[in-house]
Structure formats: C-alpha cells, structure tokens
Amino acid sequence: MDQIRKHFERTFELSDKDWQIFSSKLKKKEFAKKHVLLKAGQIENHLSFIEAGIIRFYISKEENDLTFAFTFDNCFISGYDSFLTQTPSIYHIETLTDTTLWQLTYNDLQIIYKETEIGNSIGRHASEDLFLKKSKRELSLLNETAQQRYLNLLTEQPHLISHIPLKYIASYIGITPQALSRIRRRIS
C-alpha cells in the first residue's frame, strides 16, 4: 500500500487524514496467472493499482484475440470507459502473471471524492495516467513501424517482456507472430 502513496506523492501532497480515508477503502487482491478480471459484457466496478504483475486487455475474436494494451507494475488499471459510465465492457482484461492489485470500487471512489480534500486530485491523477497511456498507444500505431513499437516495449519493460507470450506481443504491435519472429531475428 505504501507503493500507492509514494506514487501519488510524486505528484501532490497527501495528508495523513486523506490517506487514511483513501487507504481504508483499498482492498488487496491476488490473482493467479490467466485470471480474467473483466469479461466482455460485465460492468467494471474497480479502479485498481498494480503492485506486481502484468495485465492484458483484449477483444476476443474467433481466429485470434486482438490484444490492445498491456499494463505493468506501479500503474493504474481499469476497464475505465465501463467504470466511468457503469455500462458493459466490450473487451476482456486478464492477468498474464500472478498479480497483486489494490482495488477501489466505483462507490468507494465516489465517497473519497466527497470526504477528502485530495479525492478529486487522486481521481484526476488516475484518469490522466490511463488517458496518457491510451493516447501514447494510439499515436504509436499511427506514427511508428511495428519494429519501433516492439523496441519501445522492450525498452519500457525489458524485465517483464519475457513473461508475455509472443502471440500477444505480435497482436499488440499489429502484426502476425511470423512477422514478429522476423523482426526479432533482424534486431538480435
């Protein structure tokens, strides 16, 4: 839980009182590898912080899943569009490794907004973090080659990339597993 406080305190000052209210609403949950956190059709009820683990967002297709995001340690995670609107998600979220999350429910977040001075800053920080990751991903797909996207992933998370199956990485960067194999041979 200290990890979350340190994460917030890089951006803003957090009083002990506000931290006590916020942290009292957090629930620590551990999930095994390949656990589906959110299924398409379900409503997201949690904003979570990853203490440890790797999580994948994907759309299920008959032939191949379409992976569109990975999230790693020290990041927020949520099916955020479903969380905000309280409508069913159109995608799945699953753990790729054993994962530890600190979770906050939608209703508890509303209480934090009302009862703390810093609540709105916490919510804004989490939503800005999620938005910036989404924006970066979209711009990467528009402006970079598949090889550049792969190298970026290697640079950003070199110690974790080995835990992601290559078929998911290929889908994430928008190519086939065979094309990823060619890129990997070319850069090694």
UniProtKB/TrEMBL annotation:
Question: In what residue span(s) does the Cyclic nucleotide-binding domain sit?
Answer: 29-114
A Pfam family cross-referenced in the UniProt record is cNMP_binding
Q: What is the official name of this protein in its record? A: CarD family transcriptional regulator
In which organism is this protein found?
Anditalea andensis
